[in-house]
Structures
1.
Amino acid sequence: MTSLGLPSGIRACLFDLDGVLTRTATVHAAAWKETFDAFLLARDGAGFRPFDAVKDYDEYVDGMPRADGVRSFLASRGIELPEGGKDDPPERDTVQGLGNRKNALVLQKIKELGVEAYEGSVRYVHAVRAAGLRRAVVSSSANCHDVLIAAGIDDLFEVRIDGLVAAERGLPGKPHPDTFLAAAHDLGVEPGRSAVFEDALAGMDAGRAGRFGCVVGVDRVGQADALRSHGADVVVQDLDQLLGGAP
């Protein structure tokens, strides 16, 4: 495993999607900002404090299931909304309605802009497969499968635990470790012999809570120290930095 920059006992790699494998984290951040800014403007008027697509995104919504992200950010502003139903229309000011508004914007942006995978990450996943390690994608997104297909990398992974699978199985999302634990279980590998690859602070917390054999933080936005403080064993800017040994 030295050539992959991982401890010798690792037998499975569990990859987050947005920000680790694909350049979709910025798309999600932009959709959250558009959603929350419109809501806050209508609620508070011209003096509203806008959603910060870096700080607020990283701290309150990145890596979380959609509804949890809505609750988390609104709580940071002292705002409570009715939960609503999963079929609430995007214009309804409920937790589920705002989540559906954000999802519609993400799908629109992905359709308009397409999906690009990080070349370094794809190179690394190919190396992981060549080394005979098991591979899974673990994402809070309900659109994970479509994004993998659009990026042309769906064939690289044996297991997918995403927002849809988590809902079916009743798995709490990150920062809880349950989705990563489910991926390791489905691959037939113990958590202690599995590596987690994440760019979100909530994902770091999940990796630490699940007692995985290695937690790799991917720093795309200059938050290396925060990733380490939340449990990263090693931090890289792109996964191919791990090839040939630990950075």
2.
Amino acid sequence: MPEIKALLFDCDNTLVLSEELAFEACADLINKICAERNVTVQFTGETLIQEFVGQNFRGMLLTLQKTHGIDISPEDLEKYVLQEEDAVIAKLKAALRPCPGVDEQLEALQRAGKYQLAVVSSSALRRVRASIEKVGQDRFFQGDVVFSAATSLDKPTSKPDPAIYLHALQKLGKSADESVAVEDSKSGTLSATRAGIKTIGYVGPYADSKKDEMEKVLRDAGAVVIMRDWSEFPAALAKIESGEV
């Protein structure tokens, strides 16, 4: 069993409680895009989360084009992606909070100095950096260790494509079996596990009534251990390190 040397954290709703805020901003923009094209579909932040959790905005627009027959030119797509970034960052800067208990775990990991800590997100790099800076988590992720499927790759993509995890491993100089990922969504868990990385599924941000369902979703997507609260992280990591899972 190789020694675990790198911990790769998803950002949205894993490190910071951003999904609800971000999806509110997304819904406003997507409804405007649909209205401009005479498509009568209407989204709220909540219905968007149900349909698209774990995808970035580019991924959402590409899916919408297929499912609702919306025509968006490549130029408009790039324009909307930037507009969404601006709208989401404004909301995050106003109201973002860290996930409960995560800072305590990051502080303990930083003190121990045993692992390389990195962020691996579908969201745009500007948004990820704004998020971790807003809540003061940037102190845990020093240097070039924040990776974005929307920004860091030559060809932008979104989870569940494993490309961003493979890119992060390459840049960090770590192998998949030396690494552990933490993810809260099906698409994120698939992205990490398809890259060969053992993944801890985190269901903390979901409503209590949804936790059991999401635990099954993340296990089915390949998560080897589930935690409901960040206080369970040391035990979850120990299970992987001991080869128990």
3.
Amino acid sequence: MFAGLALYGFSLSAMVRASLGVNPWSVLYEGLERQTPLSFGTISAAIGVLVLLLWIPLKQTPKLGTVASIVVLAYSSDLGLALIPQHLALPARIGLLVGGVLLNGLSVAVYVGARLGPGPRDGLMTGVSAATGRSIRLVRTLIELTVLSVGWLLGGSVGAGTVLYALAVGPTAQFFMRWFTYRVG
């Protein structure tokens, strides 16, 4: 679980350093930041709480991984930003973007597959998937596209990397889940 969370944070750093578009949730936070007097971080926390409230009808419960995701992502994202240089040439940035998206999908499979509790947004994904019987691939893609659309309508900035992430992270996570999901018995 902790390895998956650390990779998740590092993958977010790679996408930031690529400077080709942030993930859809960041677009939403940016859009809300433009429409309210709240800071990006405050909005991120508030949305996290709202997403946790959506867990109630989905019968999701927070666990160790839910809390660990907040702490480990923060530190591993900062570490990634410290290690990955800025202002790279376009081919390197494209590599960071594609690698970041693939690593993010892998890391979701690793930490969610440990079954020690997903973070708020990934718990929404697993809860909706379980409640509807729809695939992780479909549910995650629909959540990401919805969040992206709302964020864009509120004035958040969208890049090619944002669209790539929204369309690719769900299928990538589902692809890796088969190898990293802990099964009892």
